[in-house]
Specification:
The protein is α+β, with helices and mostly antiparallel strands. Helices cover 22% and strands 23% of the residues. The chain is built from nine helices and twelve strands. The strands form two sheets. The protein has a six-stranded mixed β-sheet with strand order 4-1-2-3-5-6. The protein has a six-stranded mixed β-sheet with strand order 7-8-9-10-11-12, covered by helices on one side. A hairpin with a 3-residue loop joins β2 and β3.
């Protein structure tokens, strides 16, 4: 195992958005393709259920009901049905929202934080620079950055456990292209690495379920084909990137990880293939 303590892993999704595939994959089709808004439920033996992102929720449509925020869902059409939200899926599985004590946020795009307000007792773990990149933006700049402030609860700051330069780290001794990782819970179970480029301060997460190792790589790529076939996104996609150089760096790191660790399950948040292969279809 790449991590010290195994956790149960359920790969799920809450709604999806629609884009021409060619924007996310060089040589892809120009027709619109569905990209699921993935999130992951991790069951920790001591800390209970933990969420990695949330996908969409009905609140996304409330926050984008009027201009200028409504431009978001016109540019990026979103499909979401009642019963698909993380809080509803967890309730169906017998997990009330109050049981979620920790939530890891890969970054602050709306399709990753859409359900954050549904979990009233969760503490939020994220890279400090990710929040600093968006928290003071005006309405239009926040919209361009894919951030809808109303998706966060009013007490977000009070419930936050941000990762900073002095946060605990552990060395990664497996030949990975990262020297160390943030030890989010201090027990080696959740190891986070910065994978900025798509968004400032975005993190990926190494976890193990005892039988398989996973890298939850958020939006480092939009599909598994990208790193497997070395197919970067269309140059137009750079318009929504926080840093093109960092994007290329972490894209190449992901390819290296895939080549050196073929059994590692790399899970991009919007990959239909990964969801179909390793998604549970429900909470386990």
């Amino acid at each position: 195992m790449m991590t010290s303590i195994p956790v149960s892993v359920s790969i799920l999704s809450a709604g999806y958005c629609v884009h021409p595939e060619i924007l996310t994959l060089k040589g892809g089709t120009v027709r619109p393709v569905a990209f699921p808004a993935g999130y992951v439920l991790l069951r920790h033996p001591q800390h209970g259920p933990i969420l990695f992102d949330t996908g969409y929720s009905a609140r996304f449509f409330q926050e984008t009901a009027k201009l200028p925020a409504s431009l978001y869902r016109h540019i990026t059409p979103v499909v979401f049905k009642e019963g698909e939200s993380a809080v509803e899926r967890l309730r169906e599985a017998g997990i009330p929202p109050e049981e979620i004590r920790y939530m890891v946020l890969s970054h602050f795009h709306a399709d990753h934080i859409g359900g954050v307000r549904d979990f009233p007792r969760a503490k939020f773990i994220y890279l400090q620079k990710a929040y600093e990149a968006v928290r003071r933006l005006g309405t239009i700049k926040a919209l361009r950055a894919g951030f809808l402030p109303g998706l966060l609860p009013e007490d977000f700051a009070a419930r936050s456990l941000p990762i900073g330069e002095h946060s605990p780290k552990r060395p990664l001794d497996f030949g990975l292209p990262f020297r160390d990782a943030y030890d989010l819970l201090g027990d080696g179970s959740l190891l986070a690495v910065e994978m900025s480029g798509h968004a400032a301060g975005m993190i990926g997460l190494f976890v193990s379920d005892g039988g398989c190792d996973y890298l939850l790589c958020a939006d480092t790529v939009w599909s598994s084909r990208a790193f497997r076939e070395n197919r970067r996104p269309h140059p137009a996609a750079s318009l929504i990137m926080s840093d093109r150089r960092e994007y290329r760096l972490n894209f190449d790191r992901l390819r290296q990880i895939h080549e050196n660790f073929p059994d590692l399950r790399i899970v991009p948040s919007h990959c239909r293939e990964a969801l179909a292969r390793w998604g549970t279809g429900g909470v386990k």
